Amino acid sequence: MNSIDAWVWWLVGAAALGIPLVVTAMPEFGMFAVGALAAAATAGLGAGVVLQVLVFVLVSVALIAVVRPIAARHAAQRPQLATGIDALKGKQAVVLERVDGSGGRIKLAGEVWSARSLDTGRAYEAGEQVDVVEIEGATAIVI
User: Fold this and answer.
1) Long-range CB contacts for residues 28-36, cutoff 8 Å, separation at least 24
2) Among 58, 52, 54, which Cα is nearest to 39's?
């Protein structure tokens, strides 16, 4: 097997590793494919089989060691833009009808919401400003 054949086989291996990357969406296969491309370049430069395999292993392991933790951290992050009920938490609202531990009404983000006080012993009168701390179903919990 000469050096041209070796780099072609490494390219075939890279393509073969790219298929499960697309099918399973496992980025590790892509990192192995990049390792195979690096080994193909090494073979194209005329290096021996031992060096080709060593380059494949080193590049693949380096990518997994560096890229995988970054990707995992990125995937675990919450979105920066809050939407839906998450966007309403922390907003201020105006009390329309007395709000206490058993209920009431507020105007929140231009809409009328049912609300109840987080502290059941506390009541808010019409016209007061309150802060939304949680949304439970269609009821805003306020302080």
Assistant:
1) 28/64, 28/68, 31/60, 31/63, 31/64, 31/67, 31/68, 32/60, 34/59, 34/60, 34/63, 35/59, 35/60, 35/63, 36/10, 36/11
2) 52
pLDDT tens digits, 82-116: 788 888 999 999 999 999 999 999 999 999 999 99
**To which H or E segment does residue 133 belong?**
strand 129-136
Q: Is 40 exposed, middle or buried (0-12, 13-18, 19+ CB in 10 A)?
A: buried
Give, in order, the Cα–Cα distances in Å from 95 to each of 20, 49, 92, 99, 134.
Answer: 56, 76, 10, 7, 16
Tell which phi-psi region holds residue 109, choosing left (phi > 0), alpha (psi between -120 and 50) or beta.
left
Comparing C-alpha atoms, which of 42, 57, 48 is closest to residue 2?
48
Q: Tell me how far apart the 2 most distant CA atoms of the chain are, in Å.
A: 87
CB atoms within 10 A of CB 45: 11
Amino acid of residue 109: A
The reported pTM is 0.54
The whole-angstrom separation of Cα 88 and Cα 7 is 57
The token pair that represents 106 in the structure block: 């507020």
